[in-house]
Amino acid sequence: MSPGKEVAFFSDDDLYALGRTYYESFFADHADEPVIGEATPAYHYVPGVPERMHPLVPDAKLVFSLRDPIERAYSAYRMQIWKRAEDHEVSFLEAIRKNPRYLDHGRYAEQLVRYYRYFQRKQILIVWFDDLRQNPARFYNDICAFLSIDRFDFENTGVKHTLRSRSHGNPVVQSGLRTMRSAYDALGRGPLALIVGSQAVKKFSRGLRRSLLKKLTGSRPPPLPPETPRMVLPMIEESNNLLEQMTGRDLSTWNS
Fold it and tell me: Which member of 183, 193, 205, 209 has the lowest number of beta carbons within 10 Å of its beta carbon?
């Protein structure tokens, strides 16, 4: 994979203008790998991406990971609050009425139609977030099979898969933690630097993150109220139904 997530080459006009050489530079150290790739969520929904992508990587294999669009919209709304790009006093319903993009980014059927104009269906794998929750090993190994690479042996690697909030990704909190790490590094090989990787420091860091998050961004937004999906569903149901027809996937849980 590329060194960092979200290369955004095909979705960002300024980056795309840098040309093929710029894009290929992300994979310069992985030329001998059987499969190379990157992950940029914006490729889902930014218009024009398939048109840009196909001439450069016509044989690409594309993996679309789809989540209940209302859950996805609420997650994006919470992230915007963490980033202080959304007023925490604005309710979710108010936010999606003010900013249709919260739901538009979850209109997957329309997005897939754009890709099917340029790529064969055998080049596109659709995976579902619900399946990741229920059986992460199968979820990942379906992707491995699609990419024609070795299956991932979860049982013998000790890897534990957890689904949790990513609120700790708040850039203000991360900036503070980077400052702390710089201070550790400045100590060289002194006693404090030697315990940075210890469990005690990890627990301390998690506690600091929670404390900073509460002070900098206010209290955590409440869970999605159970009545909210019923109120939002009419705005997205038609797209869900079209996706169900296109994929043959039972999406009744999304429409309930």
Answer: 183
